[in-house]
Predict the 3D structure of the following.
Amino acid sequence: MRTRIKICGITRAQDARAAAELGADAIGLVFYSPSPRNVSLAQARAIVAELPPFVTVVGLFVDPSRDQVEAVLRACTINLLQFHGDEAPDFCGGFGLPYIKAARVRADADLVQYLSSYRAAQGWLLDAYHDRLYGGTGASFDWNLIPQGLARPVILSGGLTPGNVGAAVRRVRPWAVDVSSGVEATKGIKDAAKIAAFIVGVKNESA
């Protein structure tokens, strides 16, 4: 099975183009103002306008209002929603688009129980736990905490880099991997060489 690749936290059109040209399946746009990778509606429109066909545009939100999500959807083309907060299942599925639900993994939490309410999600994104931050921390988690046979496709995130993504794919065999800080020069600015190395690392293990 080929492991899909999402490059998240894109803030510049040239980074989106580089990711697409190097073989990424999806790019992520962050609509969460506390994040250093947050983009405005104008930035999002400019990024989406530069993408070639067949690259999925994912809009990432953390406990947004309905108005916020709808404003983004009016402003630019989003193909898939990603929710990182405590959004209810009905909220996540209420925009006429497919969605993925993120869960922050820790040893003292029942991951299966938490995610069971989100069976309508197209996939479950598993990320490192942080008590204040929602993704993009650069921290990994113990992949042994991932239960076998989860009901939805797994998207692995959290501390992935060109150096460890091959091991991650071998160990977890996820449907997709999601990287942000691991392929950056500085926060929000991607490094094309790191993106290329990351994609090669994935492809070498999923060919």
About this structure: Residues 4-206 form a domain with the TIM Barrel fold (CATH 3.20.20.70). The longest helix spans residues 192-206.
